[in-house]
Amino acid sequence: MTGTGALIRLALRRDRVLLPLWVLLLGFLPVGTVSTYEGLYPDAASRTTLNASSGDNPSIAVIYGKAFDLTTPGGFTAWRYGVFLALFLGLVAAFTVTRHTRAEEDSGRLELLGSAVVGRYAALTAAVAVAAGTSAVVGAVQAVTLIGAGLPAAGSLTFGAGMAGAGLAFTAVAAVTAQLTEYSRSANGLAGGVLGVAFLLRAVGDSSPGASWLSWLSPLSWTQLARPFAGERPWVLFIPLVAAVVVGTGGYLLLPRRDLGAGLLPMRPGPPTAPPSLRGPLGLAWRLQRGALIGWTVAMAVIGAVFGSIADGIGGLVGDSEQVRGIFERMGGAQGIVDTYLALIGSVFGMVVAVYAVLVALRLRTEETGGRAEPVLAAGVGRTAWMGAHLVFALLGSALLLTVAGLGAGLAHGLRAGDLGTQLGHAVGGAIAQLPAVWVVAGVAALLFGLLPTLSAAGSWAVVGVVVGIGLFGPALNAGQAVLDVSPFTHVPKVPGPAVSAAPLVWLTAIGVFTAAAGLAAFRRRDVG
Amino acid sequence: MTTAISVSGLVKSFGRTRALDGLDLSVRTGEVHGFLGPNGSGKSTTIRVLLGLLRADAGEVTLLGGDPWRDATELHRRLAYVPGDVSLWPNLSGGEVIDLLGRLRGGLDRRRRDELLDRFDLDPRKKGRTYSKGNRQKVALVAALASDVDLLVLDEPTSGLDPLMESVFQRCVAEERDRGRTVLLSSHILAEVETLCDRVSIIRAGRAVETGTLADLRHLTRTSITADLSGPPDGIGELPGVHDLKAEGNRVRFDVDTSDLDRALRALTAAGVKSLTSQPPTLEELFLRHYQESGR
């Protein structure tokens, strides 16, 4: 453990911009809803209607989680943000742990530190302390600001503690995944996979009355299960604590069983000669991108199937009440409630795939800074060919992922509804309609890489953050149309729907292609390295 | 005699730092040209301009008869490059990288590839991540040497190689020259350049300070001598070619030009030698001595 304090200070210094940003963003988001809620639902009548319409609706629960009491601003906030804030905090915690453990080993820097007077467990302890500390600070900020906004203290504290608990749980998960593989990329991938499974578990649990026990298995549900502002059950908050201690201990037990720099999963020798497919820039890009593409394809198929399998129940549930039906149709403006739902999950698929597109585009930058672009560019590969080969995956890979997600949703929904022919088309159409918006995000990432390479990573993730933030929270925060219009996903017509206009799809595609081409042109003109 | 590389008045700045400040360089076809300079003198920047990775701010650059920035792709099929710090893709095996780079350049000689793997004692099955620095260097060297190209651009290629592998490398470069290939070899090790190169350009702070054959640069290749003598070292300081003599009792330290080494040694043995160490001066010492006044 020797040296842990120094390593904590080092980690805080390296993350001195990133971590405060996350604390601000995740800490202050809940309190923003309170006034919005009071403005949108000023009286008891409107709140009761909201509670009746959204409270038990499985199609909404699949995304946001189970609502326990939507008649108070606190209950609404806990429902609206419980899952997604936990998800983001989980990502922040996991990536922080990986960045200060496996990524440091990966780059060889930890070896340098390890030769100084630093204990075997110091790096892991420091990373866990920073990630857990960040989670605790975010939870504390949330609780304090909610109390400050006049909400009950018990509920506010339960909410904040629940969020901190979720961060803690994924800190522990990352402490284990960082021991398993040799690369930080795969360690983050494994932690992200655990988050994805946690999201799916609760998506099914929250939306299917018969399987609600599944939600108890998901760290993302624990905040909502502690029922902040709806008859608090503080004992639920012990679950993340116990889980974090148990899982985290696993990480500490695994650490001494491996060498520095090595993973627990063994490394196999490779082929002595290259396969025929490994030729040309596209062959290389395929080799570098295929693992991620296969993983994402499987994940999107599963996510699509889960979301799709719930679609059929929605029409019947909402059908009882004219009033609720009205609300739903206003929400989407489309004819059928199921169609509205399919269009809604289509946009969720779109935003998830946008993350993939940015990851692919940023691979260009890591190849460049890692010194692996240089030998390729000095071996007869033109710059357009090299960059274009990776962009093929950003553009066509995202088309594949959206199609697969749509197919998954369409198959699952169509089979349950006994109407495979129509529903498959609807679901695939709803997903594919998002492609132009994904291309806009990918195009901007490519443009940043060509024009402002040093800012490409931060800039691209900022774009994703803004787009996803507007998509998930914009309507709830009652943001103006001008703000909503910033996101390309706002402009995607509702598919399936009665009046699908092709015009926005055409100009979104044009923007995506134009920005990508401008990025290529800029890359041809700048220095490499 | 034709010119493979011709650079004149090359300027390249990064922000406020002027990395190259009017550099001239001329490499003749078929020669091994040493490109010598201390760390940070601009060797790698020059090479990256020659490869079209960086765009020159000013100056004329011609490589194999073309413009390295405009005709990059066509020129690159005729050259092979070994970077000073080789990074490999962590999940590709060494053999895969060698084949890939060869194919990108338009094919490589499989017999020669296998022969080189054998000579460099390199296991092509290991993944990029698991290679040591020296072995990563070998992967890039094998890929370059097995390609059928006119020009080899080698940026400090022996950094990380052990002495045995360094001599393998030197034999390989000599063979390449015998096949009529042009080699640009950047280095900060004087001895390496002495063994391999027909002509040498010396660069410092972004400018070429000397160019010529090794004979032209003979004044640079002094030897440092330290000796314990039986008697006082009388008269050694006055010998031609002896510099910077320091004497403490019967112990002397001095530098001597290679051409005058014989005479200096005779003078030493005449005084009676008890112990003797001789070593070539480091490049840094030479630079300190020769170019101090040109300033940083």
UniProtKB/TrEMBL annotation, chain A:
What keywords were assigned to this record?
Membrane, Transmembrane, Transmembrane helix
**Where do the TM regions start and end?**
17-37, 78-97, 118-141, 153-175, 187-205, 235-255, 293-311, 341-362, 391-415, 427-449, 461-484, 504-523
Recorded protein name is Putative ABC transporter membrane protein
